[in-house]
């Protein structure tokens, strides 16, 4: 099992050590978005051989952003999972769902 707190700090330290961006949060959001696009394109059009790598890139950017902004993603993810587990959904005839509680 991976220690997400440790990994988040490791990712940020690597950015610092290599002189990568550690101040322009918007640029990092754009980069994370770009990596998700690359994963999507690889999945849809290129056979999906690099999807895992591209998803990892996106997560690396997201963890870096969290560190830049002072969030601990391990805590944020656990809070969000607990929140969504309590939600109630209604399934429609077309197969879609609507959140009805939570």
Tell me about this structure:
This protein is mostly helical. The protein has a single domain, classed as Helix Hairpins. The protein is 66% helix and 9% strand. The chain contains 4 helices and 2 strands; from the N terminus they run ααααββ. The protein has helices at residues 4-17, 25-45, 51-69, 73-85, and strands spanning 88-91, 97-101. α1 packs across α3 and α2 packs antiparallel against α3 (51-69). The protein is globular and about 55 Å long. The model has no long low-confidence stretch (mean pLDDT 96).
Q: What's a quick, concise take on this entry?
A:
The chain is mainly alpha-helical and about 100 residues long.
Integer tally of domains = 1
What number is the mean pLDDT? 96
Taken in chain order, the helices and strands follow as HHHHEE
Low-confidence stretches: none
Assess the beta-strand content as a share of residues.
5-15%
Strand order of the main beta sheet, please?
A: 1-2
- Backbone CA Rg: 17 Å
The end-to-end distance, rounded to whole angstroms, is: 30 Å
Shape: globular
Determine the number of helices (DSSP H or I, runs of at least 4 residues).
4
The percent range for helix content is 55-70%
- Topology-level CATH name: Helix Hairpins
Number of strands: 2
CATH class category label: Mainly Alpha
What structural class is derived from the secondary structure elements?
A: mainly alpha
Give the CATH architecture: Orthogonal Bundle
Main β sheet profile = 2 strands, antiparallel
